[in-house]
Amino acid sequence: PPAQIMFCTLNTHKADMDKLLGAQIGLEDFIFAHIKGQRKEVEILKTDDVLGLTITDNGTGCPFIKRIKEGSLMDQTKIICVGDHIETINGKNVSDRRHYEVAKMLKDLEKDQVFKLELIEPMKAFEKLEPRSKGGTLPEAKIPRGRETLRLRTKGPATVEEMPTEVEEKAIKKVDELLETYMGIRDIELAATMVEAGRDKKNPDEFAVALDETLGDFAFPDEFVFDVWGAIGDAKQGRL
Q1: Exposed, middle or buried, 232 (CB in 10 Å: 0-12/13-18/19+)?
Q2: pLDDT digits (tens, 9 = 90+) for 12-36
Q3: Arithmetic mean of pLDDT, 197-205
Q4: Sequence spans of domains, the chain
Q5: What single string gives the DSSP state of each residue in 90-159?
Q6: Alpha-carbon Rg of the chain, whole angstroms?
Q7: Where is coiled-coil annotated (predicted)?
Q8: Phi and psi (nearest 5°) for 116?
Q9: What percent of the chain has pLDDT above 90?
Q10: CATH topology of domain 2-122
């Protein structure tokens, strides 16, 4: 059932956060669905203001851990792993929250206090399977990739589009960094959507309107929108 799917990866069955399925799919990509597995609980003493987690979500009620910073408080808590769905924080269900809301709730937890997380880890699959012979395997890097992608949209039909240009990829990377600076999150797909919204806009006002139409739920501050517009312009002018 769709409600059991935590996230999907492209061309690997592993919970590899660098291969997460986003808004674009290559026409020759393989999609692997990671479903809910074992539940677990952990109590943690918050000894640092920064927990060291990067949270993302699948857009349909499943915030999960995308990164754990090495050496951080959460890295020391070995029961918590990349790919885990955060179901509750101190008994409060957060399954219906977006990733930035969950990140803020974790950030707002009082320092030097114990808090409790209930998590669901992705079901392990293919762990005991090995290829029949090493000669019969296909290196992942050699999987054929076209320049066309299938673009999935929350509104309107899916369309086949060209992949981002080198200029757009640089802009996406910069916008992703700005998201972390302003909002404490990194979300490459959100950054890509923002860059796409500014693709044919002539000024910051047009860009702000496009962002509001596409991502109105975020309510980005004006200063952030202006900096994103500047990053897109810098990429187009070759300054990134």
Answers
A1: buried
A2: 888 888 888 876 677 778 888 899 9
A3: 89
A4: 2-122, 164-237
A5: TTEE-TTS-HHHHHHHHHTSPTT-EEEEEEEEEPP-STT---S-GGG---GGGS---SEEEE--SSS--E
A6: 19
A7: none
A8: -120, 135
A9: 33
A10: Pdz3 Domain (2.30.42)
Say how far apart CA 107 and CA 63 lie, in whole Å.
15
* Spatial contact of 17 and 82, defined as CB atoms under 8 Å apart: yes
Mind listing the pLDDT tens digit for each residue in 139-195?
Answer: 443 334 444 555 555 556 666 656 668 888 899 999 988 888 877 777 787 888 899
Predicted structure pTM score: 0.56
**Structural contact between residues 18 and 42, judged by C-beta atoms closer than 8 angstroms:** no
Q: Spell out a b/e string for 86-113, using b for 16 or more CB atoms within 10 Å of the CB, else e.
A: bbebeeeebbebbbbebbebbeeeeeee
The count of C-alpha atoms lying within 13 angstroms of the C-alpha of 189, restricted to the half-sphere facing its C-beta, is 19
Give Cα separations from 113 to 45, 49, 90, 189 (angstroms): 6, 11, 11, 34
Which of 39-43, 152-156, 162-166, 235-239 is the least confident region? 152-156
Nearest to 53, CA basis, from 173, 183, 185: 185
